[in-house]
Structures are given as structure tokens and as C-alpha cells.
Amino acid sequence: MFNSEFSNYITLTNRKTKESIKLDQRRVKIRENENGLMALSYIAPVFEAMDIEVFFSDMIASEKLDMDIGDTGAFSVSFRGIVEGKGKNFPQNLDHKIILLQEPTCLDYRMNVQKTGFSKFKPKNIVSE
User: Fold this and answer.
1) Which of 56, 55, 40, 54 lies closest to 96 in space, CA to CA?
2) pTM of the model
3) What Rg, from alpha-carbon coordinates, does the chain have?
4) CB atoms < 10 A from the CB of 40, how many?
């Protein structure tokens, strides 16, 4: 590997407690949809996967984190959850976790929030208060 000023880790830091966890980038795949929802698919040895579960165990959905990819600068994300990964048959000593994070989205000032509300997850014909 060549010498670089970039780190090989993704660092997630809880803003309230200042606790952080480092994920090896070689084991992470990041996917993002158009709404800013990111899925960090992490395949690692079982003991590292357990560290992830411990780090996120007391976190509530929407808790603010700082995410820094390779020491390029931290940006804000909200924790959405952690799920067990499925798919390929991994050896017994590997585990697959998917960490769900949400990037803040910029609201269009032309959107009538009084009428449509912020959330897209609500029954039809219901107006937000």
C-alpha cells in the first residue's frame, strides 16, 4: 500500500458522550439512496461485530453522530438503526452488520411544510399539525 495522508478507518463519534468507534474501510461497503439514507455494510470478525453492538446498544434512533471517512473531515449523520446482515455464507468467525445512518437533507423553502409535513411515512389524507 502507498503512503497516504488519509486513514484506513471510518470513525463514528457520538456527539453527546464523545465515544467513538473505528471501522476498517476494507470491511465496509457504503450505499446511499436519494433521500440520504446510508447503509454501512460491515463484515468483520465476531469480536469486532460485538464492539459495534455495544457501541450502538444505548443509542436511540435519530441520535446525532459525527462521521469521518479516512480523516477527510467529519460530517453530521443521524443514527437510524442496526440490523443483522444476510446473504452469503460467511465462515463462523465472521459476522455481518448493517448500520443505518441518515444524512440531514436540505428542505426546499418552496415546499409547504404546513400542508405536507416533514415525514413521508404517514397515512394519506392526514395533514401534519
Assistant:
1) 40
2) 0.71
3) 17
4) 22
